Amino acid sequence: MKDYYYFLGIKPNASSEDIKKAYRKLSLKYHPDKNENDEFFTDRFREIKEAYEPLMKKISKKFYDQQFGIFKRNKK
Question: What is the rounded CA–CA span in Å between residue 73 and residue 71?
Answer without folding.
Answer: 6
